[in-house]
Amino acid sequence: MNGGINKTVYITLKDDGSGIFKPKSGEMSMLRNEIEVGTYYKRERAAYLVDQFLGFDLVPATTIREFDGEEGSLQRFIHGAKIGQEMSREEFEVTAPQMQKMWIFDCIIANTDRHKANFLIAGEKIYAIDHGLALTNQMYSSYRPFFDTPGWEEVSEKIKSFLSWEEGVRILESLLLELLSLEEVSGVLRRIKKVDSLLREYGTIPKTLAHELNLKTI
Amino acid sequence: MKKKFVKIYKLHNDGSQQTLATCTLVDTSVECIGDEIFVRNLLEKGTPNYLGNSPETLFPKEGLLFLENLAYVFRSGYLNAAKVQEG
Prior knowledge:
heterodimer, A: alpha+beta, B: alpha+beta, 5-stranded antiparallel beta sheet, 2 helices, 23% helix, globular
């Protein structure tokens, strides 16, 4: 496709919709010092797995495929979607609860790269995309934080449900270890448990404890 | 006189791409034309800076830096910014 410093390819699958393919070989280096180039596509898949196991339903289905001898991530294309940069103020207001859920998802996957160009809206549903620069264990700055806000009941229930499913936790850990380092996988699971404990104890994510989720609050 | 510019493309359902906006360096600042909401958000909210640590957000007044940074911001496939061209 035209443009973009990372190579992206629009792919139509026979009888199965279409997707965005991001080959490993097309990844741009030096976007983040702490994230090795050649691993972005695996992080796209890892973020999708975390989303699915938590039941957040934010990330379009993402898998790893090989096309024309190149390995990369393939993510379902959302038809008729606009990106955040195209959203009006009113559309932002309507989607605020989903934005809150996306923010905590980003905390869990330590996403260093969320801004208006990497989430979508289709109808009134938000989709989180572009997770190639996520799953770091470094401290990082967050966008529009929802610290100290109410309204975490749904998220809290989903996280509790996931953590009480011991086999599910083991399966997720095993799947993530195929994609990420042990340290990165441990980091994700640690942050899920930390979010759970913060929501149980405070009913919110206190700004004063942001560092426990690797977040800078400057 | 030749001017430096960047085109931002939107991907449609059939896989085709269409120019959503064009940003052009005019003197020391950048001017953008195209989709009204997109351009307003771009100009008012700026973009995260991928080319350095400071400032964290780039605005059109940063000129060429803002222009060069667009290809790093819009790279999802849904919206892709081309590299800086001259013409």
